[in-house]
Amino acid sequence: MQIAEKKVVGIHYKLTNDDGQVLDTSEGRSPLMFIHGIGMLIPGLEKALVGKSKGDQLNVSIAPEEGYGVKDPNLTQKVPKAQFEEPEKIEVGTQFQVDTEQGAIIVTVTEVGAEEVTVDGNHPLAGMTLHFDVTVDEVREATEEEIAHGHVHGEGGHQH
Asked: What are residue 134's DSSP bridge partners?
């Protein structure tokens, strides 16, 4: 069976950046299980998996436009340190949720100055070319219930 829209897919993967640094991996864990074609993966990886079967291996590089997007400078801003409840505890790498007109987003502190804190609302992997080493572990039909719920059930998936 080949990977196509609304198939349940399980993959093992290693994600690295341009420098070869491992950013994420399924090593030592169950495969990542998802329903293909409903937006659970970045677009570039979904496209690369179409037509693959159990046991297939692929190495694919995904440009930012097909990954987590190009960095948007409008999502980075300086905020007065005094606006934080506990400004002395703010440090680079701290993440928190902010409510915006477009909904809630996660921002990351990228710089802490004497009077201001720089926060970035871009995804941490935005602007990066992503390199995936993938092995297809499983491909099967999704059940009607999985499609209705929008996620995989059972081992490696959601437990009800």
From this structure: 13, 58
Query: What is the C-alpha to C-alpha distance for residues 33 and 154, in angstroms, rounded to an integer?
Result: 10
Q: What share of the chain is helix, strand, coil (3-state, %, to 5)?
A: 15, 40, 45
Answer whether 0.90 is exceeded by the pTM: no
How far, in Å, CA of 29 to CA of 2, rounded? 23
Radius of gyration of the chain (CA): 19
10-residue mean pLDDT series, the chain (160 residues): 96 98 96 95 97 98 97 94 88 89 89 95 95 98 93 67
CATH of region 7-68+126-149: 3.10.50.40
**CATH class of the domain at 73-120:** mainly beta
